[in-house]
């Protein structure tokens, strides 16, 4: 099997297999900072500085001739040709491995994943509580360092952070760092973007791709991707996956079904003829069959069950 840095090159070229993408996902969870740096290097958006590596040893391993330089810093410039970028990734891999063995981490890290069809609760050493949505994973130290409380998230989770003004709490995703002191908020992250929705308090979101940063107040959501960072009012039901509470105010049935499918695992389809009908209601931990009956009566639509799907038409 190819080593992980060869697979990374194939991933960035869009030529990796499904099995290799699973390895990439695991690599991202364990080495998020390295993945971000490599993505920037590949895109050629900016100069990247990699520090704390013994450049002489690294270059000797690659059998490259290099003039003597400062031992603490290697500058990696934007790569234009793809074959050059592949070589740069291989170099970076050697540097990373050398750094790992010469500077082992001092923190015992724990990764917890919600594999069940329900949510899962994680209590951290500072008494902060995290609720993981299905498929989400969180990586955190058994005990936090002295200067900060940093965790890494993949997927969706809700945070209730214990206040400590001397030790900020930082949630790291593929696209941004979310810095808080003590508050409650929701984070939903995937390969394309990261969304932060604030319930109480105040958080600062820092993009990993440029110098953009935004401060969120309750009721607002910041969305960050490689290309942009935006702020908008939070959707009414962004917390429904955790609370089981849905609120619809003159929402179209298309919007209703989109929100319900996030909670009920994509069991509902709405036909275009019914998608724009308006619906107002509030549900709290109600069975899906009962919700569908209410929609049927309120909007005067037909309901069909077929192949474990509910079709509204």
Q: Structural class, from secondary structure content? A: alpha+beta
CATH class of the largest domain: Mainly Beta
Binned, the helix content reads 25-40%
Sheet with most strands: 13 strands, mixed
Percent range for β-strand residues: 25-35%
Q: How many beta-strand elements?
A: 20
Order of helices and strands: HHHEHEHEEEEEEEEEEEEEHEHEEHEE
Mean pLDDT over the residues: 80
The rough form would be described as globular
Number of helices: 8
Q: What is the CATH topology classification name of the largest domain?
A: Jelly Rolls
Describe this structure in words.
29% of the residues lie in helices and 34% in strands. By secondary structure, it is α+β, with helices and mostly antiparallel strands. The protein has 3 domains: 4-102, no CATH class; 109-233, Jelly Rolls, CATH 2.60.120; 240-312, Phage tail protein beta-alpha-beta fold, CATH 3.55.50. The strands form 4 sheets. Strands 3, 4, 5, 6, 7, 8, 9, 10, 11, 12, 13, 14 and 15 form a 13-stranded mixed beta sheet that branches. It has a 3-stranded mixed beta sheet with strand order 17-20-19. Strands 1-2 form a two-stranded antiparallel ribbon. The longest helix is centred in the N-terminal third of the chain and has 21 residues, at 82-102. It is globular. The protein starts with a helix and ends with a strand.
Keyphrases for this structure?
Phage tail protein beta-alpha-beta fold, 313 residues, 20 strands, Jelly Rolls, 3-stranded mixed beta sheet, alpha+beta, 29% helix, 34% strand
How would you concisely characterize the structure shown here?
With 313 residues, the protein is an alpha+beta fold. The protein is 29% helix and 34% strand.
